[in-house]
Amino acid sequence: MSDLDVSQVLAWLETAAQMLRDSFQEEREISQKTGNLDLVTDMDRRIEQFLVSNIREFYPGDRILGEEGTGDQVEEMSGRVWILDPIDGTMNFIKQQENFAIMVAVVEDGAGKCGFIYDCMRERLIWGGPDMGLYYNGQPLQPPQDQELKDSLVAINWQMFADNVSNVQALAWGSCGVRIQGCAGTEFIHLLLGKQSVYVSKLAPWDYAAGRILCEAAGLRCSTIEGAPLAWLESIRGVFATPRAYESAIRLLNMQ
Amino acid sequence: MSDLDVSQVLAWLETAAQMLRDSFQEEREISQKTGNLDLVTDMDRRIEQFLVSNIREFYPGDRILGEEGTGDQVEEMSGRVWILDPIDGTMNFIKQQENFAIMVAVVEDGAGKCGFIYDCMRERLIWGGPDMGLYYNGQPLQPPQDQELKDSLVAINWQMFADNVSNVQALAWGSCGVRIQGCAGTEFIHLLLGKQSVYVSKLAPWDYAAGRILCEAAGLRCSTIEGAPLAWLESIRGVFATPRAYESAIRLLNMQ
């Protein structure tokens, strides 16, 4: 297993970002996955294929879990595994032409090594991991302040918020307010930049793998809503938060 | 009453925007207005005073309604009235240092003449009115497509969404999803750029005056949740939407 060349991954991300920016000049093919709120475009597949082909060429022994299924069937986490979300926030990509992200996570024998989240329309790129620190647009990123829930904004998946799943509305009322971007990647960026203290959402592995690695490297807490440790291959209802806000969030989300 | 010099107003907005950007280098004075979710800073007051003093100098016969109360007591809309929100989205200004807006509306004898909304951190400035068309960062702005509710994103005030005021959750489920920025100004920008089809919120006069003028000039529909025409001096629960999405929204919001 060769060492990870971060600068090479960053170059792939820049190329992918330019493909996405250029794509707004063309008509898109859009189709439904699980329903009318779960869309996929030809660009989701093109970006994933671009990343997969590069990883296959330079890291032939690695395995790849990609949202669009062009990687491998990954059922356990031995060795090095790449987890890819080529366009996180596809609905925003289609409807807003912004507020989406490319996300890449690298996991070795079940330990998060490096995460990359790139909001390429706003040119906000955060990457890093436990052994390398955090970087924001090429500069070292200081971990966010340990804000309290009551003094900060929170992000909550809108469907969970409407249905008050696990009491999430109590979390909202205990905060300075709710903001919803509809993209896990940009919500993680806001957490890492200290713009909000909590993010609660239902997420597939590619939605949270990079964000989890970055949050843990920044000293933030990550778990399921029930407080259980995160796996890598399961869809979850997750909480990502500053340590202080995490304590409040877990208490409120698990009140009987 | 002298003619309105739009380029002069744009120059004031640029100066105010620079004051706001520079303000992040300093400590802020923050105090509560009606409660812990309704904050005001020294910058809200400084920006309003800057705008008020310029309007007083160049348009001495005009009256001014400002959020921070440094203008006039305006109880009816005769003559020319300026409606000012020096920082719309003060909570975001404090917590995110972005996603806020400066808003200015000019109303003559109760008719909206010109609105300005400036998201100065992202450098998105929209201005215009019924007799002058719409401009986005200096370029003419085409009105947004007449999107259907079911094919588009919507923005809903998070407190109304939590409490399902006027059935707003049905609006959400009838759409492609909810996005919440917590700033009326940036929600109006998203409407005007076609990134969402509906905005529902509870708003004070300075929160909606500029947005209403711009939306009406763009062919969008604006009313109270009950479908009544908007006044200028009342706090409202308002709906702002593309014509097609407006029909769906009013029906859903008024279902028994």
Automatic annotation (TrEMBL), chains A, B:
<feature type="binding site">
    <location>
        <position position="207"/>
    </location>
    <ligand>
        <name>Mg(2+)</name>
    </ligand>
</feature>
<keyword id="KW-0460">Magnesium</keyword>
<dbReference type="GO" id="GO:0046872">
    <property type="term" value="F:metal ion binding"/>
</dbReference>
<feature type="binding site">
    <location>
        <position position="87"/>
    </location>
    <ligand>
        <name>Mg(2+)</name>
    </ligand>
</feature>
<dbReference type="GO" id="GO:0007165">
    <property type="term" value="P:signal transduction"/>
</dbReference>
<feature type="binding site">
    <location>
        <position position="85"/>
    </location>
    <ligand>
        <name>Mg(2+)</name>
    </ligand>
</feature>
<protein>
    <submittedName>
        <fullName>Inositol monophosphatase</fullName>
    </submittedName>
</protein>
<feature type="binding site">
    <location>
        <position position="67"/>
    </location>
    <ligand>
        <name>Mg(2+)</name>
    </ligand>
</feature>
<feature type="binding site">
    <location>
        <position position="88"/>
    </location>
    <ligand>
        <name>Mg(2+)</name>
    </ligand>
</feature>
<keyword id="KW-0378">Hydrolase</keyword>
<keyword id="KW-0479">Metal-binding</keyword>
<dbReference type="InterPro" id="IPR000760">
    <property type="entry name" value="Inositol_monophosphatase-like"/>
</dbReference>
<dbReference type="Pfam" id="PF00459">
    <property type="entry name" value="Inositol_P"/>
</dbReference>
<dbReference type="GO" id="GO:0006020">
    <property type="term" value="P:inositol metabolic process"/>
</dbReference>
<dbReference type="InterPro" id="IPR020583">
    <property type="entry name" value="Inositol_monoP_metal-BS"/>
</dbReference>
<dbReference type="GO" id="GO:0008934">
    <property type="term" value="F:inositol monophosphate 1-phosphatase activity"/>
</dbReference>
